[in-house]
Amino acid sequence: MRWYRINGMPNASDFSGNQSQIFRVKIQEESICVLLKNQKVYAFREECPHAGKSLLHSRCDHESEITCLAHNFKFSLEDGKCTSHNEGYRLQLLQTKTESNGDVLIYY
Ligand code: FES
């Protein structure tokens, strides 16, 4: 595993307040979602852990949670745990860091 610099994304520092946006990037043929929210960067596999639907258009209307629109499962962006059901599904979060120039890196 190593750090991958993500090119072509808006600078993370351009996002503030309640704005959030999810982007898809490819790392080693894997589709990764990158979410910029309140100047924080989150990264997770695009496939929903419940039934594999894309999380690209998931809803992020809570401070630290996303909702998959396929069946409305909710996942914490802090630890990946499903917060809406007790079946043990877990979002696979990836480690991220933002450099001083705003560049985003993902550990994969
Ligand atoms: S596939 Fe995401 S909630 Fe079912």
What does the model show?
This protein has a single domain (3-107), classed as 3-layer Sandwich (Rieske Iron-sulfur Protein), CATH 2.102.10.10. It is built from no helices and 10 strands. It has strands at 3-6, 20-27, 30-37, 40-45, 59-62, 65-67, 74-76, 93-94, 96-98, 104-107. Bound molecules: FE2/S2 (inorganic) cluster. The site of FE2/S2 (inorganic) cluster (FES) has 8 residues, from loops.
Name some characteristics of this structure:
108 residues; mainly beta; Rieske Iron-sulfur Protein; four-stranded antiparallel sheet; three-stranded antiparallel sheet; 10 strands; 0% helix; globular
Detail the topology: elements first, then pairings.
Layout: E1 3-6, E2 20-27, E3 30-37, E4 40-45, E5 59-62, E6 65-67, E7 74-76, E8 93-94, E9 96-98, E10 104-107
Antiparallel strand pairs: 1-10, 2-3, 3-4, 4-8, 5-6, 6-7, 9-10
This protein binds FE2/S2 (inorganic) cluster.
Summary of the model, kept short:
By secondary structure, the protein is mainly β. The protein has strands at residues 3-6, 20-27, 30-37, 40-45, 59-62, 65-67, 74-76, 93-94, 96-98, 104-107. The radius of gyration is 13 Å and the shape is globular.
